[in-house]
Amino acid sequence: MSDMAIQQVLAQMRALQVQAGGTPEQAAPAAEQNRFSDLLHQSINKVAENQSVAGELSTSFSSGDPDTDLTSVMIAMQKSRVSFEAMVEVRNKLVEAYNEIRRMPI
């Protein structure tokens, strides 16, 4: 989910809160929003880094580099796979939560 989409979801949540009788001051502070956005960006960057490392180790091993062992390649590949699957699950949960909020009657 892009940063723009996340910001749109947050804006819609704030609008719904105001419509429900809440005040904009009760909305989450901007610092907390930035922390969530930063955390999401860091997580995505870490997944990309894991995939890059796994790819580099795999290429290095298949080219016959004596400093690269099969164990480190397999561990890096599994780490990459697990982090990607976790990221997909988080995305699915965010989309599910957004859709649930969107379906709420006003």
UniProtKB/TrEMBL annotation:
One of its GO terms (molecular function) is structural molecule activity. It holds the Pfam family FliE. Keywords: Bacterial flagellum, Cell projection, Cilium, Flagellum. Belongs to the FliE family. NCBIfam families: fliE (TIGR00205). It comes from Wenzhouxiangella limi. This is Flagellar hook-basal body complex protein FliE. It is found in: Bacterial flagellum basal body. InterPro entries: FliE. One of its GO terms (cellular component) is bacterial-type flagellum basal body. GO terms for biological process: bacterial-type flagellum-dependent cell motility.
